Amino acid sequence: MEKRKSFIINVIYFILVLGIAGIGTYFAFSYLMPFIIGFLIAFILRPVIYKLTRHFGNKKWISLLVIFLFYILIGFAVFWISIAAISGIEKFAVKLPGFYNNTLAPSLANLFDGFDGVFSSSDPNIASTVQEITAVLTANVKNIVQGLSTGALNFITKVISSVPSLLISTLIAIISSFFFTTDYRNIVNNIFNVIPEKRRQLVLDIKDGLVGTIGKYLQAYAKLMSLTFVELSLGLWLVGITNPIGTAFIIAIVDILPVLGTGTVMIPWFIIELILGNFTRGIALAVIYVLITVVRNVLEPKIVGEQIGLHPLATLILIYVGMKLFGFAGLFGLPIGVTIVKTLHDEGKIQFFRNISDSRNESKNQLEEIQD
C-alpha cells in the first residue's frame, strides 16, 4: 500500500514539474525568444571555439571571429533565399490569373462540356443537376485561384511590413549571441549556481539527454527526407518530368517544413494535370504521392523509434497524441520528452517506475509461492 501511495505521489510530482516546465517554456519562448536564439547560437558554436582556443589560447578575438564569420555565411544564405522566395512568390501571384484564364479555365470548360454531353441525353433533372455542379465547381476553382494570387501578394506585403520588428528581434539576438559567446563559461556557471546542488547533476543529465535525443531525431528525419527524395526522383524520372532530381529535392524540402508535406505540391499538381487532360501523367503523379505517403507513414514510427530507443507503436502513439495536444510542437516535443524520461530512468537517474516494478516483482513472487 505504501509503495502504491509513493508511486502516486511520484506521478503527481512529475506531472507538476512537467506542467511548470511547460508554462515556463511557453512564456520563455513568447518573451525571450531573441535571447534564446542567441544562447543556442553560442551553444552550437561552442565546440568550434573550444577547438580553436586549444590551439591559439583562450582569447576573446577567436570567439568574435567565429561568430562574425558565422553571421556572414548566414546573412548571405538568408539574403539570397529571401530574394529567391519573394521573387518566386511574386511571379507565381502575377502569372496565376493568366494561367487560369488561358489554360485552366478552357480545360475545365472542355471537361465539363464532356460531362454535359454524357448526361444531356439522360433524365433532364440529372442533366440540370450536373450543370449546376459544374457551374459551382468552376466558380470555386476561380475563387481559389484568385484567393491564392491575392494571398501570395498579401503574404509579401505582410513580410515586408514585419521587417522592422523582425530586424529589432534579429539585432537583439545577434548582440546577445556575442555576449553569450564571449562570456559563455561565466554565464553558464552563474545559471548553474542558481540550481540547488542536489539537482545539478539531474539538470546536466536532462541537458545531455535533450541534446542527444534531438540529434537522433535529426538523423531519423534526415533518413526519411533522403528516402522521400530518392522515391520522388525515381518516380518523376519514370513519369518523364523535366529535371526530376531538382523537382524532387524541392518537394522533399517542403515535406519537412511545419504543417506542409508532399501533398502540398503533389495533390494540386496531379489535379491540374487531370484537368488539362494529361490523364496518364496525372494518375502517375497520384500513384507516386500515395506510395510515398504510405511508405512514410509506415516507416516513420519505426525509423524514429529505432533512433530514440522507443517501440514503433509507442512512437506512433506519442506522435499522434503530441500532435493532437500541442500541434506541430507536440509532434516532436512529446516523444523527445518521454525519451529523456525513459533514458534517465534506464540509467537510474530517476526512479519514476521503481515502485510499480517492485509491486510487479512482489506479486510475481507471491504467485510463485502459491504455486509451490
UniProtKB/TrEMBL annotation:
GO BP annotations listed: transmembrane transport
Predominant cellular place of this UniProt entry's protein: membrane
Alphabetical keyword list: Membrane, Transmembrane, Transmembrane helix
Compartment list: Membrane
Bilayer disposition of the protein: Multi-pass membrane protein
Highest rank taxon of the organism: Bacteria
One matching Pfam family: AI-2E_transport
Transmembrane stretches, start-end: 7-25, 31-49, 61-89, 159-180, 279-299, 319-341
CC per GO annotation: membrane
PANTHER family referenced in this protein's UniProt entry, alphabetically: TRANSMEMBRANE PROTEIN, TRANSPORT PROTEIN YTVI-RELATED
Family per similarity comment: Belongs to the autoinducer-2 exporter (AI-2E) (TC 2.A.86) family.
Designated name of the protein: Sporulation integral membrane protein YtvI
Species of origin: Erysipelothrix inopinata
Encoding gene per record: ytvI
